[in-house]
Amino acid sequence: MDNGFSPDLQFVARDAFTNDTKNIKAEALAAQAKGRAAVRSVSEKFEAMFLSQMFGHMFKGISTDGLTGGGHGEAIFRDMLIQEYGNQVAKAGGIGLSDAIERQLLAIQEGKK
Questions:
Q1: From residue 101, how far is each of 13, 27, 33, 44 by CA, in Å?
Q2: What's the structural domain count of the chain?
Q3: Range of the domain at 24
Q4: Measured distance between the N- and C-terminal CA atoms of the chain, rounded to whole angstroms
Q5: Which of 6, 31, 48, 105 could link 86 by a cystine bridge, Cβ 3.0 to 4.6 Å?
Q6: Cα 68 from chain centroid?
Q7: Does the residue 2 lie in any domain?
Q8: What is the Cα–Cα distance from 61 to 107, expressed in whole angstroms?
Q9: Where are the alpha helices (DSSP H) in 1-113?
Q10: Angle of helix 7-59 relative to helix 97-109, nearest 10 degrees?
């Protein structure tokens, strides 16, 4: 096939097109991975919030009249501790809620129902 270009120019043009195609594919995969990471982060945050609420109900029945004496300060720190319990349990794998949420969000994102 003679298109007026020298054979060397044809290879250069082909290689440039191939490299551009590879770069576009790499950028698309990077964007998709970033989107998946964002979806995973949101699903883990939701599971952490859910677990914190569950732990909060579990700790309501525990009295605070021990060494620290209870009071408003302890109530604030207890809420922070419970929130951190939820964060750590979700980060360690949780109860599987974040996996289910992630699957659903990705299906919605891809247009599947």
A1: 46, 26, 17, 9
A2: 1
A3: 7-109
A4: 49
A5: 48
A6: 37
A7: no
A8: 40
A9: 7-59, 72-91, 97-109
A10: 140
What's the chain's average pLDDT? 77
Residue 82 CA to residue 74 CA, distance in Å, equals: 12
pLDDT band at 84 (very low <50, low <70, confident <90, very high): very high
Q: Which residues neighbour 56 within 8 Å (Cβ) at sequence distance 6 or greater?
A: 79, 82
State the average pLDDT over residues 101-110: 84
85 belongs to a structural domain = yes
Residue 1 is assigned to a structural domain of this protein: no
In a domain, 29, yes or no: yes
Residues near 94 by Cβ (< 8 Å), separated by ≥ 6?
44, 47, 48, 51
